[in-house]
Write a structure and sequence with these properties.
Structural class: alpha/beta
Helix content: 40-55%
Largest sheet: 9 strands, mixed
Number of domains: 1
CATH architecture: 3-Layer(aba) Sandwich
CATH superfamily: Bacterial extracellular solute-binding protein, family 7
CATH topology: D-Maltodextrin-Binding Protein, domain 2
Oligomer: single chain
Number of helices: 13
Strand content: 15-25%
CATH class: Alpha Beta
Distance between the termini: 65 Å
Bound molecules: (2R,3R)-2,3,4-trihydroxybutanoic acid
């Protein structure tokens, strides 16, 4: 006992002597959905890569299903250094890093190819550089998916059908401003409260990508699903500077490379859920409206444009639209 304490002391004094056999540093990673969901799949790939390429000097402890709280709380914990990693939607992120908000504009992206190209290209990568000054390291864009509306009241085909529906939204002003033009009454709420709110009828509906609707089992509490695809929901793998600042340059590269691989895996899982998940939700009892009047939703959004143009700059929005 005494001897091992002495050895440990010597090891610490020598600095590197014990690194090969030292216990791995455990990184706490949190996300909103289950381990087998898109967030879980991406997070596992990240952690496996980091573990392997640091020769087990790091490993992860996963906190799925919002076990560490809502996304806003988890981002705050990243800043404080009480949590190491979060794989989060951009929902509350614009409240920390305002430059992110532009990618939350409804109907900004045409499809997955467009969205992924923007996130991986100069526009998306430039946004990632805005995080460190806010006490957050953004390792990569991951993905949540295009969001669709569910509710307990009626089929939504046109914006008129949303009129007066109380729908939970993320704590995201860009979304709320847009959704109001459709007719919705937006009710911001953290994700962990959502299932209960739907069950109790505190809200009539919500909107989320297919992977989330599946994983959170919203079919149990929502009858109608409309494939509105009204906004792309990017996600981010965020790391605490408390961890990042102590990494060697080589380890920094391991972390960023791992995050890129996580992104590929997470997007592949989103694709898979989009392909197979809608039929599953039908089996689970949801009535799926595939033919939504997208043009009418786009037209309804027009009154929100002046506000978006003022906040983000028309040219900056156009730069995103122009990515082919
Ligand atoms: O990130 O809050 C939300 O609706 C998010 O899409 C969900 O938690 C996954």
């Amino acid at each position: 006992m005494q001897l091992s304490k002495m050895a440990l002391g010597m090891g610490l004094a020598l600095g590197v002597a014990f690194t090969a056999t030292a216990a791995p540093q455990v990184l706490k990673i949190g996300y909103a959905t289950a381990p087998d969901s898109h967030y879980g799949v991406g997070s596992k790939v990240f952690c496996d890569e980091v573990e392997k390429n640091t020769q087990n000097r790091f490993k992860c402890q996963h906190f799925p299903n919002s076990a560490l709280g809502g996304e806003r709380e988890q981002i705050e914990a990243i800043q404080l250094g009480t949590q190491d990693l979060v794989n989060t939607s951009t929902g509350p992120v614009g409240n920390f890093v305002p430059e992110v908000k532009i990618v939350d504009i409804p109907f900004l992206f045409r499809d997955y190819d467009h969205a992924r190209k923007v996130m991986d290209g100069p526009i998306g990568q430039d946004i990632l550089t805005k995080f460190p000054s806010k006490g957050i390291i953004a390792l990569a864009w991951t993905e949540n998916g295009f969001r669709h509306m569910t509710n307990s009241k009626r089929d939504i085909v046109t914006p008129a059908d949303t009129k007066g529906l109380k729908m939970r939204t993320m704590e995201n002003k860009v979304h709320m401003d847009g959704y109001r033009t459709f007719g919705i009454l937006p009710t911001p709420m953290a994700f962990p409260e959502l299932f209960g709110a739907l069950q109790q009828g505190t809200v009539d509906g919500q909107e989320n990508p297919i992977p989330v609707i599946l994983s959170a089992k919203f079919a149990q509490v929502q009858k109608h699903l409309s494939l509105t695809g009204h906004v792309y929901s990017p996600a981010l793998l965020l790391l605490s500077p408390k961890v990042w600042n102590k990494l060697s340059d080589a380890d920094k590269k391991v972390f960023t490379d791992a995050a890129k691989k996580a992104s590929v895996a997470q997007r592949a899982k989103v694709n898979e859920d989009e392909d197979k998940g809608i039929a599953q939700l039908e089996k689970d009892g949801m009535k799926v409206i595939r033919k939504v009047d997208g043009d009418a939703f786009r037209a309804a959004l027009k009154p929100a444009f002046p506000g978006y143009a003022k906040e983000f700059g028309e040219a900056n929005i156009q730069r995103i639209v122009d990515v082919k």
